Amino acid sequence: MRIEEVLNRLHRNLKNGLGAWETQKLMAPPYREKPDLEVIQKKNPKLSAVMILLYEKEQSTHVVLTQRHQYDGVHSGQISFPGGRHEQNESMIETAIRECDEEVGIALTPLDIITTLSEVYIPPSNFLVTPVLAYLKEAPSFVKQESEVASILELSLPVLFDPMNKKDVEIQMKTGMSLKVPAYVINQHIIWGATAVMLSEFEQLLLE
After folding, report:
1. Does residue 147 surpass a pLDDT of 80?
2. CA separation for the pair 75, 36 (Å, rounded)
């Protein structure tokens, strides 16, 4: 799928609005309930934004993700989009642009932004995340932030969204519990949780 086709589908389907929970839940853990924004706001969530960056490489549209280092935290070793905590006097788009530059070395501008997707609440860390969708016509040269990024993953959309790569996997939680969750599984990389939820809404926007 070339970048022009992806952009055309997005612009066409975005006219009908975002799918929000109805599309997010397709790849959400089974224990995750429909978000109640009023309840979430009472928890004073930490705000953050991530960048879903699309670009063309080898005649196919790709997206970049990062794998975190192993650390003593709930998101240790997980795969996510470049992103981080919102700072005062920033818009969510500005946060995503800044974090994308810091984590993978790509300096985007507001002109590269397509739209924002539906917010995603992450209960274990009390983060409310805004996904920002952007694109570049050519493949960029990434430079990872060594302190936060263990590795950079470049995945083509046809591979990522291949139904054969959607599987239920057992995840060992920090609490010691083992849970079966839906995930995108590519070359031993397991993309689940909030990142899979964001990808699910994005994937539905690409359907004819």
Report:
1. yes
2. 23
